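Support case: iron/sulfur cluster complex. Customer-provided input:
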Amino acid sequence: MSDRVALRTLFLHPPSFEGFDGGAGSRYQARREIRSFWYPTWLAQPAALVPGSRLVDAPPDGLTVEQVAPLARAYDQVVLHTSTPSFGSDIRVAERLKDENPRVLVGMVGAHVAVLPEASLRAARAVDWVGVGEFDYACAEVAEGRPLGTVRGIAYREGGRVRFTPPRPPIEDMDALPFVVDVYRRDLTIEHYVIGYLLHPYVSLYTGRGCRSKCTFCLWPQTVGGHRYRVRSPASVEAEMARAKRYFPQVREFFFDDDTFTDDLPRAEEIARRLGRLGITWSCNAKANVPRRTLEVLRDNGLRLLLVGYESGNQRILNNIKKGVRLDVARQFTRDAKSLGITIHGTFILGLPGETHETIQETVRFACEVEPDTIQVSLAAPYPGTALHREAQERGWLSGPNEDLVNRDGVQTAALEYPGLAQAEIFDSVETFYRRFYFRPRKIIAIAGGMLRDPAVMRRRLREGAEFFRFLRERRASLGDARVAASSAGG
Ligand code: SF4
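Agent response - structure generated as follows:
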């Protein structure tokens, strides 16, 4: 890329629902049980390619539309990151930006517009172009002032019509991408990013994109990242982490947000050895099939926690969603990790194809048996562009005509239902799952022990506990509203 910047560019993760973790880094966008924010890495990366740009992440900074809209006056281009749940409100932010500065060029990037470029441009009159596929270099080329028709990998508006440029091949030279930590330091407030199971403050970034697995529900590999794990070299990762350590001495943990950091075991081990020399504490996403000898290398070199997508405790459901993991392997992996002292945050999804009342109970029992340290339970979310979405459309599983993934407060809805398993039962089972997992004597003792050992942990867990119960109350109230609305409509 050249250093020539013709358009002063603002990268914006717009405000939407209060506390909405829809950032360009979040895998499913919604308000969480406890206040959580992932880093906007997918926006920071193109921002790092555009000299003099600025990245504004409105939700963690608590910024409102009224506060961010006037920023448009100081820029020639604003690039917004959008998601399916927030698309409607992101359009309104784009309109407000144009109200403030009618000459500003507005681009939109993210999985939603990558999958639905034409429909998105037709729905969003204030948006001039959208990224189709990986958008880092497209953003940079538009910022250089190149005519939109010459920038590969976008759709744009011209004379009332939507036009497409030729596709842009996936980025192969990942080391050519500049470090995102420079943008983090320049534009973000590190302390505003919180994830319940990570030490605070934390920093997350990617060392590669794509995942070899083909899980039917999973957003990034099926939309922007692809099914090859395209990676940065271990030396490049080490250099960025050394810089991050220097920039952020207050950070207690670094998280590698690659879809599956353990997809390439020899590389994961080599990076671990380099991180071990840096003396940092780190965590990553992993599939539940990492062999013990690799876990040992990672643990010996600073690995603290693995974020593991178990999804279900029923093998038929895992097969239906093409998870590519056997339950017996997941059990062995979990025993190994725990015996090595590695903390596990396990994620589960209710309402996947094949779900029944019995399989929900089976998954709860499986979670209690393998006993991750903490869990997250979410509802199956059929994002446009995923195989799950296509399957749900074909088989009539979508529970509402609008395909809403969140309610008016940004909380996940049960978007799927099946013959014999109503939307309401899937929705309610999330709370039951949490209660049955956490309200067991051994779990309560473990949590209380951690709190008593460390006053900071005590303060944090008490706050999170209050948030958690408030979230459950609001969730129940929102379902009550939906049921009243449904019965009135039907009635
Ligand atoms: S292994 Fe994880 S990241 Fe990869 S496709 Fe499956 S859910 Fe997505």
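The mean pLDDT is 91.

Case will auto-close in a few days if no follow-up is received.
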